[in-house]
Amino acid sequence: MSNTTNTAPEAQPSLDAATSAVDAYLATWNETDPTARAERCSASLGDDIWYRDPMLESDGLEAYGEMIAAVQAQFPGFEMRRTSDVDLHHDVVRFEWALGLPGEDPAIAGLDVAKLDAGGKLHRIIGFVPARTPGAAAE
């Protein structure tokens, strides 16, 4: 027995709009000025942002900004970048990313799955990180 509701589908954002939203999100990881980061977060993320990965979690814009500041303090000079195209279906995106010093192999890399809210901002982000990042130095 199916538990499916037949409703009119919501308009899917364009791939360009979804890619812009992902890139704006990743830029929040690279902004070191707290005021500018808060502005970027507010412009690109839903007020109800919910972030989870194996090591970090936050709920709300303020907590998200504090989480980014903590990562930046632990890894000064590291930059986040997208390393794949953005896949989109409905209001969900998937993309790969890497974090590391510019011009060097990434210290960590992974894949995020995120949901866009009705305004086109990311508001649910789930990160997946492999046990070992390819190209990263073995410990």
Which percent range fits the helix content?
A: 25-40%
Q: Characterize the biggest β-sheet.
A: 7 strands, mixed
Mean pLDDT: 90
Low-confidence stretches: none
Q: State which percent range the strand residues make up.
A: 25-35%
Number of strands: 7
The H/E string reads: HHEEHEEEEE
Q: Span from first to last CA?
A: 51 Å
| Count, helices | 3
What is the third-level CATH name, the topology?
Nuclear Transport Factor 2, Chain: A
Please identify the top-level CATH class: Alpha Beta
Q: What's the overall geometry?
A: globular
> From the alpha-carbon coordinates, what is the Rg to the nearest angstrom?
16 Å
Number of separate structural domains: 1
- Counting helices, strands and paired strands, the structural category is alpha+beta
What is the CATH architecture term?
Roll
Question: Which key terms come to mind for this protein?
Answer:
alpha+beta; 139 residues; Nuclear Transport Factor 2, Chain: A; single chain; 7-stranded mixed β-sheet
Structure characterization notes:
The protein is α+β, with helices and mostly antiparallel strands. It contains three helices and seven strands, in the order ααββαβββββ. Strands 1, 2, 3, 4, 5, 6 and 7 form a seven-stranded mixed sheet that branches. It is globular. The N and C termini lie far apart (51 Å). The mean pLDDT is 90.
